[in-house]
Amino acid sequence: MNEVKKEMNNFIQKIINDDSDSGKWNNRVHTRFPPEPNGYLHIGHAKSICLNFGIAEKNKGTCNLRFDDTNPVKEEEEYVQSIIEDVKWLGFDWEDRLFYASDYFEQLYEFAIQLIQDGSAYICDLSGDEIRNMRGSLNEPGLESPHRTRSVEENLELFHKMKNGEFGNGEKVLRAKINMAHPNLNMRDPVMYRILHAKHHRTGNDWCIYPMYDWAHGLEDSIERITHSICTLEFEDHRPLYDWYLNQLDIYHPQQIEFARLNLNFTMMSKRKLKQLVDENHVSGWDDPRMPTISGLRRRGYTPKAIRNFAEDVGVTKRDSIIDVVRLENALREDLNKIAPRVMGVLDPLKVVITNYPEDKTELLKAVNNPENPDAGKRDIPFSKELYIEQSDFMEDPPRKFFRLGPGREVRLRYAYFITCNEVIKNKSGEIIELHCTYDSETKGGSAPDGRKVKGTLHWVSVNDAIDAEVRLYDRLFLNENPGETDDFLANLNPESCKTQANAKLESSLSNPENITYQFERNGYFIKDEKDSMNGKLVFNRAVSLRDSWAKFFKNNGK
């Protein structure tokens, strides 16, 4: 997508441009990324990170990282640290602007006192179910709480007792006094504070009342003097409530702008359901390479640049839509094609013995590290009498359009020689275990002096120098394009989302791989799994195949 089209798609930048022209905010641009630390961030959050930090960077402004840690029951320090790591990994820096909602608990409490004193908030004894039942519907007004007429003095006394821990969980709440007949259900006396006798990951047991998200969120933006409060569309109906709180308190008022959240097909974006996958061991953890979490994508071999390019490519709109996950995969392929070193790895090895090659000879052949990068140079790869090729690169009775190895057929070995298969060795069960071939010593480098051509080129690894590895072939976690459309989303899990090749053979240059993504020629892009590679075991994860294999699947299935 060209820059002009991207700019047209980004209506938020147009708003900022208009604000700058009018002198609004004194030409300041101050955004924030405000995650709740109740789970790991996913690719949808990555888009929001790129948007908020990117808008600030583009307009020479600033962006805060702020944790909306208002629910100690669901929040953990583990999630805080994972989010900090994710934002850093994507390449963004909040400098000294790391904040928490819990930084403002005392200020939020004082704001609540102010609303009570103004007669705009009251203590309610109704249970959560009773409040929901009396809320009404889009067609019917709600019913007022019998406690709505409590005096200011009584409300202040009860709120003070709530703070001091004199009531149990759920006994009382603080509600805003707005309008139980308001057409926007969010404005029907929403709860501002609830009682939770739970230890907070930062404040410990200092508080037993905690602000509701809708009460805290807009006030935090105000305290931090955010100019453009960028939210996803589900918060559009909440904006009148944020505005009401800010207006009642008569404090600094940021501008909220909503955009459509990222929706990817074949991808679960519900944090609650992702947590269920983890808790029920359908995946190995939040960083499982099949998960759409940033940590999962990182472990799978995605690059920060690929994700940032993807976020830029999909743009920013006001209308919900579903983006094809192929666009994310292609963003990775495009980035890795330019930077990933090429190596050879045989995932399902079949032994080849070159019968006319000298018994004890090993020669070093030159291989190109990356044809897309002239500065990447070349490397030496050892060639010897015994090699491994892929099982799938040989057929004993090949069809006409099979251009790889078969009895009597000649193929090219990448960077090496032409070889011809002369004999197939089988075990007692009739399984092919070895091929005997001859090579043409005049074809070194992959071309014949007599000009003859071969149609097949195979990758290979020398037996004597091969590195043993386990290779995991990851695919999409769900078979259904919209896995969340049914109640039983687990029924849509792809049983082949991870295939393991336990006996892969890799070229010797990978004996001590860097923490980068490589292209295994003809097999895809792979990265060493730093978590599971231990005690001499080497594990590689496939980030993405060289091309979209699902396009053929859909074509064959008439989709």
Please, could you describe this protein's structure?
By secondary structure, the chain is of the alpha/beta class. Among the domains are: 3-259, HUPs (Rossmann fold); 342-453, Ribosomal Protein L25, Chain P, CATH 2.40.240.10. Helices cover 27% and strands 23% of the residues. The chain has 14 helices and 25 strands. The strands form six sheets. A seven-stranded mixed beta sheet has the order 10-23-24-25-21-22-11. A seven-stranded mixed beta sheet has the order 19-16-17-18-12-15-20, with no helix packed on it. Strands 4-5-6-7 form a four-stranded antiparallel beta sheet. The radius of gyration is 30 Å and the shape is elongated. Mean pLDDT is 94; it is low at 1-9 and 552-559.
